Amino acid sequence: MPEAPVLAQLDLELRNLRKRFGSFVAVDGVSLQIAKGQFVCLLGPSGCGKTTTLRCIAGLEEPDDGDILIGGREVTRDAPWQRDIAMMFQDFALFPHMSVAKQVGFGLEMLKRPKAEVARRVAEVLKAFEITPFADRKPASLSGGQKQRVALARAMITEPRLLLLDEPIGALDYSLRETVMIELKALQRRTGISFIWVTHDQNEAFSLGDHVVVMNHAKIEQQGSPEDILQRPRTPFVAGFVQGNNVFRGTIAGMVRDQALVRTALGEFEVPLLGAVPTLGSAASFSVRAERLRPTPEAAWHNRMTLTCQTVEYFGSVRRYILARPDGEVIKLDQFGAEPAYLRVGEEAVLGWRTEDGMLHEGAPA
Ligand SMILES: Nc1ncnc2c1ncn2[C@@H]1O[C@H](COP(=O)(O)OP(=O)(O)OP(=O)(O)O)[C@@H](O)[C@H]1O
């Protein structure tokens, strides 16, 4: 059994957090435990409640119900500056009339630290973020990447326990994003401060996060390591939301030992039973990742179907085949890009997969 996290060592805990705007429920019973020094990504489609959750943690929204603990201390009704957090927004929210040095020192001045200490720390932080040459400049004269460094320096100077980031690289050019992501990940590791990073971009979430929290319709659908979520999606929503899954819908037609037989429009497939045993005849869905399918299944594999290759996309590291399903949907098959191609457009293939590569979902499919 996995060890329960030691509560005093949690950087953040949310207990059954709820937030309504009028009759609209934006956050619906969100519970979360974040150990020390984690890079956490809140991932989900637009409007699923990520930003509202983050704003509740920051103290910018008051939850209707539930508790927020930071570093083991209950802060649900505390003001933002009493929470040992800092925030960084997509537009960086820099003060337009303040010099870079002044805004970087702002947090320490608010905490009424002695002038000499503020000056020393500002000099250190400007140097660490390589923005010393801009110390006297106003934000308007800085590039996007420079503004971002200033915003980060301003957030990090108080050495908060949590840094809350809302789509922090959304405003940067694509060419800059990868470099900034590498820098931010290194900064998080170096400082040991937990980052809570809101994004709707799964590449960002899976490449940065130690822990990814997938939200949909105000609730957490699944949380875990990137590998957990990519390889073992537990709900039809997560399977459909993350890239690379083939989702099958049908009904439970039988159960043998530790396997369910799922009847779909494409045939009957065996899927391992992991959790609760489903009712015979109930609606069910499962997924198989595109790289788990094979164009020449072994004789012993039960799961197979004959389809025609519609398109081949080549991404360098991966070759992706799109095969037409009779129900109008498609099947994705991925192959390592350096290998000779499996199939050509128009070619028919028998695709198959090992039973253990199917993932039966919890809850009925939509
Ligand atoms: N102050 C508010 N008043 C009314 N409704 C709000 C308010 N703030 C957020 N909402 C609604 O709550 C829902 C969740 O919003 P939230 O900003 O948390 O979503 P999100 O997942 O961060 O989305 P996005 O990625 O688009 O920012 C949305 O439907 C939004 O319209």
TrEMBL record:
Gene Ontology annotations for the cellular component aspect, listed alphabetically: ATP-binding cassette (ABC) transporter complex
Biological process annotations from GO: putrescine transport
Keywords: ATP-binding, Nucleotide-binding, Transport
Organism name: Plastoroseomonas arctica
Pfam families, A to Z: ABC_tran (PF00005), TOBE_2 (PF08402)
One GO MF term attached to the UniProt entry: transmembrane transporter activity
Gene3D superfamilies documented for this protein: P-loop containing nucleotide triphosphate hydrolases
Protein name, entry field: ABC transporter ATP-binding protein
Residues of the ABC transporter domain: 12-242
Record flagged with keyword Ribosomal protein: no
